[in-house]
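Table 4 source record.
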Amino acid sequence: MTYQYAFLEERLMAVLEELEAQPELAVSFPPEILGYAQTMANIREWLDLAGEYGLAYEVLVSLLERFDFKLSGKAAIKLLEVGIYFGFKFEGEAG
């Protein structure tokens, strides 16, 4: 595994582990979408087996936008680092 892949996997895995530690949010997942447990398992598979870091990043960000997951400051920085690595732009809300 190259340094870049290890960098991405370590950071995304840290964010995933914080989301996995909040199973009480499973009730927030509506029945018409993939459930909490399967979503977490898919992200883990994308990181562990497939090396689909971009996909995992996009889904993690989507989950954070849609549901009331809490992230530590450390995990938030790791997610920001991945976003910067991928070159994504971050938009603040205009007042």
